[in-house]
Design brief:
Blueprint: H1 7-18, H2 22-35, H3 42-52, E1 79-88, E2 92-96, E3 99-110, E4 113-120, H4 121-129, E5 137-148, E6 151-166, E7 185-194, E8 198-202, E9 205-215, E10 220-226, H5 230-234, E11 241-247
Helix pairs in contact: 1-3, 2-3
Amino acid sequence: MQAEESTEQVLKTIEEKTSQPRSQILELLEKKKQKYSGMLTDSGAAWLVAKDLGVELRLERKISEKASISSLQAGLQNIDLEVKVVQAFQAREFEKNSRKGKILNLIVGDESGEIRLTLWHKDARSFEEEKIEKGSRLALHNCKVLEFQGKKQLSLDYNGSLEVLEKGKEKTTKLEELREGMQNIDVIARIARVFPAKKFLKEAREGRLANFELSDATASVRATAWNDLVQEVEGLRPNDLVKIENAYTKQGLKEV
């Protein structure tokens, strides 16, 4: 038995068990993809359409006990997990069909691995309001596993919930403690200087970067922001206090 059915197999199963025409099923599939703002593949959307129509797929199964990340497969639902926040990205607001929404992505992990967790709307707002830090332990209830660009990711189901078991303690690194090859570091420092942003071309794609200097009571370093973060750096002024999260240092330079 294969690990998952192809999109075509799922569509055929829906046709056979519901007698609905293919055109109507495809319309439902597109609506499901639009609902998730393009975050679903055809395969993931087909699984959810089948679920909505009460079609039981031969590989669909549920995990009633707490699952491990390594055991997750696309299409699973009603999953409970205990995870730790590895990385939290900045929330993004969007507007679709004249309706505003919010999306927030996290990387969460347990002893078996890591996976992306996507929070939507009220769940994203709650995460921000509670000021949940990296390192916090979370209990996730009634999750589902989707697939996006060939990678598995988690999302809370319509009746899902997120519980904070233990808040992570803020841990920052002093600038004098920076060493080559460090990953996922957080620093708090003041802006000393911001340099003009630059454009660059890589693999026929244009990007932007901005260099700036940071200083604290222990040292000064040069930092670089890329692409989407450049606009935030351009708005900074000397002596502004900033916190940089999930940074890394480059070999040969104390550069964040």
